[in-house]
Amino acid sequence: MADSTQPLLSDSNSSESKLPPPRTLDETIEQCIGDFGWAQFLQAVLVSFAWVFDAQQTFITVFTDSQPTWHCLDSDRCNSSSNFCTLPNQTWSWDFNPHVSTISEWGLQCAGSLVKGLPASSFFLGCLVGGLALSTLADSSLGRKNMLLLSCLIMSLSSMLTAFSTSIWVYAFLRFLNGFGRATVGTCALVLSTELVGKKWRGQSPRWLIVKGRKEEAVSILQSIGSNAITMSFSDLCLDVQESSNPDVYDALRILVKKPWSLRRLLAVMAVGFGIGMVYYGMPLTLSNLNFNLYLGVVFNALSELPAFLITFFFMNTIKRREALIGFTALSGISSVLIASLGQQLGSLQIVLELVSFFSACTAFNMTLIYTIELFPTCVRNSALAMVRQALVFGGVFSPVMVAAGRENQFWSYGMFGLVIGLFGLFVVGLPETRGSVLCDTMDEEETKNLTKEHIIG
What we know:
Elements: H1 25-33, H2 38-59, H3 61-64, E1 70-72, E2 92-94, H4 102-105, H5 113-116, H6 118-139, H7 143-161, H8 168-182, H9 185-194, H10 199-202, H11 208-211, H12 215-225, H13 249-258, H14 260-282, H15 294-314, H16 321-342, H17 347-375, H18 378-405, H19 414-424, H20 443-457
Antiparallel strand pairs: 1-2
């Protein structure tokens, strides 16, 4: 905690020569509340519960939209190898209650892949629309905390209403609303978890409140967590942070597309994100297509995200971004293609390859977000990151349809997943390496840094 006897603010009546040197936001936070204390830990834990709800709603379709197993009732006219779409209804039956899946509840077993994948695709489409519609509210009128509460409320209500759906169309619409509310959960929870801890614990986190011009709120939050003996005021807060015109995401995007180098970077990293998102969101949905226990497969997939996070966390300062992304996307792609090549015969080997592919996609997912943060300056960083997240979700829009098509031929699921992530991962080849680079605040600073680097290399 900060020493309460040490003045945090400069005396406005003292001479200019006695003014302390401007402090950065990181230095001010650390002086007020330290690097990481119990207050920050408690806030991070509480905010993390939103991510639990987020993950639940994102991957619940693994179970609700799966293809249930069935058995024959009339052995004379039915056998296990028969196509039950050609069998009379009285000759076969589901192994479980029809209400366990949307496929069996509404008789969609013979419907096209577009209809079967509609609920999950609607969810990701809602994430896209919500990301565009709600992102500016989090940056302006509502703020992160209120936006997170609103998002969780929309998700909660729409999730409860799905239990009363009367058709696949009503269910898909409610899943769209659910995704619409879910769109800003990740970003808001991330900022709320990181903006009040020191740089030692958060690496490069968004300097959102100050950079966006909301200094009064920043002072209030620092006071609530810091020592009671520390007094601060908006007019006297001494920070070495440039004033911001508080642009929204659309203004920032206009800035991004004006510069050829920034537009090229944005399109390339979004292409990579699209390929990774298709596998990251689609791979868990395909577990029901494997000859393996669905529930055990979901557990293994969830556990595989832990080493992916640990690799990113511990080796972030040593891994080269471009090489890592090319390597992990290629490994994921090769493993996925091999699953389609093996067929259903080798179930145990298929699940091993599936875990390798999903683990690689998870690691590439994390690396892409870090790479995006390092590729763009502060003035447009959040907007660039939002666009990459949108590209990741856009890949997820197509995944459910491909998973449904892959129930008949695994090439349309695992095969296409492998080709897409492998090919789209190559877009990083034209991007600069950012490991260990200094983060810039303005477009001019970033451009000057690039020209200096090119001059040195040349």
